[in-house]
Input
Amino acid sequence: MRARSVQEEALFREKTHTGGLPYDGQTRYRRSVAALHSLILFWGSRFQARILFPQGGIRMDGIRILIVDDETEAGEILSLRLRRRGLLPICASSGEAALAQLEQSPADIVLLDMKMPGMDGLATLKHIRESYPALPVIILSGHADLDSVAKGMELGAFFYLMKPVNLEDICHKIEDARRQSALDGVCGHAT
Output
């Protein structure tokens, strides 16, 4: 059997991989996207979640998250990533803004940065505990200040995570906080 030349090999691959049609990368891409879209329409949201999160990422639809961080860019990026997971994030850039936001619309869980100008994370946590005692608060600390984290845990924070945080870790802690609130028979906000 004679060895194929490079050109013959390319022609063979083109014919076998494209059904005899001339190879066009865009056409092949469009076909794969169309096939994927058909599968999503046929199998519904369960299949779509598996495609969007193939590594078993957590999808938590409808949980309202209040992100309190003075670094607005970091808060917006986290908000976007959580929104892709089906959460409903709202950002606040200070402790005062967070308390005002909680008065306007309730949240199920708060992600609270500790170091902020003005009202810091501890003061914000104290006010949240006074007004919304059952609301789970997850502390996000970008500094290795374990004293303030320990004080936050004493004030009733649900958990703490050190920045930079992995999105999977945040999602797992949000799910844990949601489950704990459900076990406590609390909807997550003051009535």
Observations:
- The helical segments are 6-17, 25-43, 45-52, 72-84, 95-104, 121-131, 146-154, 167-183.
